[in-house]
Amino acid sequence: PMDSTRRFGKYRVEREVLDEQRLEEITQRKAYSDIHRSLTEQLRDSLRCTLPKLKRGVMSSLPVLYWLPKYSVWDYGMPDLVSGISVGIMHLPQGMAYALLASLPPVFGLYTSLYPALIYFFFGTSRHISIGTFTVLSIMVGSVTERLAPDVDFLIMNGTNITSEVDIAARDSFRVQVAAATTVLGGLIQVLLGVVKFGFVGTYLSEPLVRAYTTAAAAHAVVAQLKYIFGVSPTRFSGPLSLVYTLKDVCSLLPHTHLPTLVVSAVTMALLIAAKELNSFLSPKLPVPIPVELITIVAGTLVSSYAHLNSNYTVSVVGEIPSGLSSPCVPDVRLFGEVIGDAFALAIVGYAISISLGKTFAIKHGYKVDSNQELVALGLSNAVGGFFQCFSVCPSMSRSLIQESTGGKTQVTLIVLVTILKLGTLFQELPKAILASIVFVNLKGMFKQYADIVTLWRSSKIDLVVWLVTWVSTMLLNLDLGLAASITFALFTVIFRTQMPTYSVLGNVPGTELYVDLETHRQAREIPGVTIFRSSATVYFANADLYLEALKKKEDVGFWGDTCIEGTGSEREDQAWTERENGTVFVIPTTPRTPDGPSRWEYLKGGAPDSTSLGWMSELQDGDTTTLGSSSEDTLSRDLERVSLGSLGKWTWDIHSIILDLSTANFIDIVAIKMMKNVFQDFSEIDVDIYMAGCQASVVEQLERSEFFSDSITKRHLFASVHDAVLYCLNHRGASSFPRYDPSLCNTPKTENYSR
């Protein structure tokens, strides 16, 4: 019964036709000063509400105070424990391995896996991302440390002779200072950007862009793991096309693949894939997922230890893991000037990865990530971590996937890291190939995002182009330049869509107050004497001229200072509009507009017609016209004379009113306002009225501030809706040449009666 009532429901509205002036009288619109308070009032109100705002500010700045009191050990305890152990074990070898990518001693990778994660625990808003070392950021840090602390600067001198031996202790000490200074500066940049609400840039990371970006980042992670999978040592590359160069170098080293390492990798991946499929099959029957990664790591360590894979088969293992924590120290601020560019790049790339992964997991699990707070949290993680000799961090795709896949629900899992650091010595015999295999298999979900190409091809070609451009630029230009190129291109598509919108002439759906595109709806009916013009985008400086051109074409208007060409539909559109030097050229319609196409147009020549008589029209149409392609075409340009708009008078124009539907506009700038004024003025000279409908309050305010309204253009020309404007036009101008609007024609369940 409820569905039936909704489907066939009716309502009846009886009100007067409302223009903007009458609407403001009825609604008692507030003045600008009432809406926008003065600075003094804002300051007084802020001081009055200091305590509540301070409370909300503390809660938003420390998200842990919001969710920790609600934490349920029964619901989240076991999944977080399993996830924390799995992720913690991943932190150990990844931290050490990525420290080598940053050209730092392995122990500093362990510090980087601990301190920043502790800071993020208090300030972060994502529940699933795992803060710590990341391949690309480690490589970027390594490029800075090697540039400012190359080996040639630390060669040991033997008396007056310089040997080829490098002072590794001095070199590593200075590289740690460079990395710490870069990290602290990058963290301060992130905090500053977060405070000034720069996190809004996250809103420009659309879902296609984010998914393409993470897909390309997964490819970077895979290529970085290939050397551990095959047991080779490729050359390090950085900058654009580094992925291509690295992949080429790895392929060239394939004949030198270390077979024992490859066997370990292949067996591990096969077992992981089989175990994960089994886990997926049994997941409905299990209270928590089976910790496949944890079992793999423990089993791999035991096999490696008892089979002596490192000593007997030279399989690379994690090696010695030192225990103990580092003490804080102030970084060398003199290095800030030399690393500020690198610090800014690290800040942007780190935030992009963080917000991309955070939004991905938030959408999947149904919660919200605060982009500004994420920027602050990541910045504090880096800034504080830099004081403990950590290098730049961000979420790791592989660890975050493991944390999510093992059932982790909150950031409380990082507490397990403290314990893991004390148990690190137990995993010294863990082969690096097993870690690389785990990363490889866990990235499988990211590679499933290539199916987006098929989906976007069917749904949105523009989003597909954004996806492809993001993927290609990130793959070829690396994550920093690729991100910049992707965002720039995504914004360009938005500008392109607003600059090249769809223009349409609307018709009425019989029996309703609805108006739809005449070209795309068969049952839509044109209103006699009234043209309703709409743009699918807001009108501003970038598309104001296009809006005007579209209005000319839709109206078949030939009095805009251009030479019109005879033809219909696409015939005229295919011809160029050529502005004449000797004055404005006018044309007249020789056939009325029909639903199948616009009027036909012919050149008008001769003197100015008499505005008080229409007899000249029939005479001119009978024998004083020259069509394009006739024998007198050559003399036409010499004989045509200037005709003013006013001299045309009330001639046989097929419309008397034009309604501009501005319901899609959320703002209007000075260029568009001037264009609108010209439209009002030009059409008024041939006695065609212009009205605007559906203007939002912000648009009306901008029109008022720009002094758009005058004695000739008042708020009586603005209407609350298109239907209000249509009824007014028919009642105001339709009586002279068209029947008055008859509400009885609207014989439908939805009826509206309007009174003048």
UniProtKB/TrEMBL annotation:
Keywords: Membrane, Transmembrane, Transmembrane helix. InterPro entries: S04_transporter_CS, SLC26A/SulP_dom, SLC26A/SulP_fam, STAS_dom, STAS_dom_sf. GO terms for cellular component: membrane. Residues 520-729 form the STAS domain. It comes from the Eukaryota. It is a multi-pass membrane protein. It is found in: Membrane. This is STAS domain-containing protein.
